[in-house]
Amino acid sequence: MSIRVENVVVEYARRRVLNGIDIQIEAGEFVSIVGETGCGKSTLLRLILAEEHPAEGRVLVQGRERTRPDRTCGYVPQRYSLFPDKTALGNVTFGLEATSRGFFKGREFREEALGYLRHTGLTEADARKYPHQLSGGMQQRVAIAQALIMKPPVLLMDEAFSALDPGTRRGMQGLIRELWRESGTTVVFVTHNTREAVCLGTRVIALARHESGSSVALDLEVPHLDFDSDEEELGRLIARVEEASAASEGFRRGMAPLIR
């Protein structure tokens, strides 16, 4: 088992956001997390990352309770977490340099970083550019290389493609699926796009909001589908996921979104 979320409760300002979340994720799975705005998808991801901690319950990764962020979990946010004063190459080598504990191997780090950048479709010329010189899709490729070079057992992706144009998004979807298949990394992927969730994931978890806090409304294993798969089959899966994640009518009428 890679990730265990045990009966987790999260509260903000005495309002319950997540209520009794209980999830097991096996090593090597690609799990998509979906749900309406405000259901706590990103909160769940931050719990696994250990940027936040539950009011009740606990979160374990590889059998250890999460207390602070570490190399166990890589993280790719919606907005690119790149240092503006470093080149693409410098951004990717930063994690290795920061954790080298005095055994700095500049040339080896650079060669390894170049390998990861090439694997994400970037060139050596791109590696010398600063973030402001790169397109949104190229910046996101750097962010993925930045996370993967640390070889995390778990990769957390929070709406990582939502800010990209449709063509770039399709390319990034194919890239992350390819990298996942090659590496065997456990991926937890938060998205608003149900089609994306169904086509990328081996499993889809839908959260639904209620007055007492969001809970797991659906935990569904899905077949490996492509985005151009049979529309009838895709449509059935998408409809099932969206129906499960829809908030109750009473809650939808009476409350505004609290948190992503």
In short:
With 260 residues, the protein is an alpha/beta fold. The protein has helices spanning 41-49, 88-98, 106-119, 124-127, 136-148, 166-183, 194-200, 231-245, 249-254; strands spanning 3-12, 15-25, 30-35, 56-61, 64-65, 73-76, 154-158, 186-190, 203-208, 215-221. The chain is built from nine helices and ten strands.
Chain-wise SSE layout:
Layout: E1 3-12, E2 15-25, E3 30-35, H1 41-49, E4 56-61, E5 64-65, E6 73-76, H2 88-98, H3 106-119, H4 124-127, H5 136-148, E7 154-158, H6 166-183, E8 186-190, H7 194-200, E9 203-208, E10 215-221, H8 231-245, H9 249-254
Parallel strand pairs: 3-8, 3-9, 6-7, 7-8
Antiparallel strand pairs: 1-2, 1-4, 4-5, 9-10
Helix pairs in contact: 2-3, 2-5, 3-5, 7-8
| Strand runs, count | 10
Q: What strand line-up does the widest sheet have?
A: 6-7-8-3-9-10
Radius of gyration: 19 Å
Helix content: 25-40%
List unreliable stretches of 5+ residues.
248-260
The secondary-structure class comes to: alpha/beta
Portion of residues in beta strands equals 15-25%
What is the arithmetic mean of pLDDT?
87
Largest sheet entry: 6 strands, mixed
Determine the number of helices (DSSP H or I, runs of at least 4 residues).
9
> Helix and strand string, N-terminal first?
EEEHEEEHHHHEHEHEEHH
**What's the overall geometry?**
globular
